[in-house]
Every structure is written in C-alpha cells, then in structure tokens.
Amino acid sequence: MTSFAVLLLLAQAGAQPTDSAVGPPARRPAITIHEANAPGVRVFFLNIPWGPETFAAMERGGEGYYNRRSWPFARMETTEPLRIEEIALPAGNYALVFHPNTPKDEGMSFEVRKIAPGEFLQAGNVMTRTPEGETLWRAPVAFDTTEQTVPTLEIEVLPEASAVRLHVRYGNRATQTVFSQ
Asked: CA-based diameter of the chain, in Å?
C-alpha cells in the first residue's frame, strides 16, 4: 500500500497521520528542591508550579480543602541568630509556613516554626506535611499582584545592611519579609 493510501485511510478514520511525528506531549519540569542563600541564611524550597485556582482558594475565606491545611513552603537554616519584628530566632532549622484565609475572612498568615534538624521537603511532593515544632512568630501576610507571572515558586534571600529580605514570588503574587541580624 502506498503512503498516500495509508494517509487517506487514516484521514477517513479521523486519526492523526503520525502521533510520533508530533512528538511526546510537553512535560512539566520535575519538582525538585532549590536553594537561595545569603551569608548565614539558607532557604530551601520546591519549584512548585503556579496554581492560580489553588492560591485563590487560599486567599479567599472559605471551608474548602485549601482553607483547612497549612502550606510549609520553605525550610530556613540559619547559622547566626536573627530577629523578626521583636522575636528572637536562635540559629537553627525552621519551617516557613503560609496559613490560608479562614472561614471568618481573617486573612492569610505567615509562620516561622522552629523544627528539628533535617529536611522535611520532598522532591516531587507538592503537598508536604507541615512538620511539628514550636511557633516562634506568626503574623498576617499580604501578597501584591505582579505584572509578570512566574511559572513556579521562586524565593530570593537578599542581603541588606544588618538584615536579610526574604522575597517570595508565586505566579503573579509576591510578598517580602525582613529578618534583622
């Protein structure tokens, strides 16, 4: 059978001539642990893909799944003590956790939790459980809407005079927190 006849039969059957000619479907990058650092501070995080509906559910007050679970988005290691507002953070290992808005519309919050040494983030697992530990600081968090949308979670640790600024971008949302030294 000639190739013309094969193509004609495939077209009549509604099939694509050669799926392999088009290639495999585009794959998302693997979700892996990334690192951002400044002197005395290392922050580890997953390159979690932007989920606009998931994040919107966390921002809105409600009873949905994403309103009932915390999001441990990063792990921070410090070799020197830091402060956040009036709270002293000894050198150590911390979970950085976002808490979703509540059914009473109290807004999202950001927690710094002292945890045991070791990694709790798991490559490939975007639903990592929040590790046990002591909450040292928790406060409301506000996100700005940005003009650009990044495809995955991005974190920078920016050194400043006597401080480090944690800059978090997720999709078209961004927030910053300053830890003084």
From this structure: 81
- Is the residue at 151 inside a domain? no
Does residue 7 lie in a domain region? no
Number of domains in the chain: 1
Task: Please report whether residue 159 resides in a domain.
Answer: no
For residue 100, give both structure tokens.
């979703």
Q: For 79-172, where are the E strands, in sequence order? A: 82-84, 87-89, 92-99, 109-114, 134-140, 144-145, 154-160, 163-170
CA 77 to CA 75: how far, in whole Å? 7
- pLDDT, tens digit (0-9, with 9 covering 90-100), for 40-85: 999 999 999 998 988 888 898 777 777 778 999 999 999 999 999 9
What's the DSSP call for residue 152? B
Domain span at residue 75 reads 35-142
Residue 19 forms part of a structural domain: no
Q: How far apart are CA 180 and CA 172, in angstroms?
A: 27
**For tokens 């490939």, what's the residue?**
124
Enter the pTM of the model: 0.83
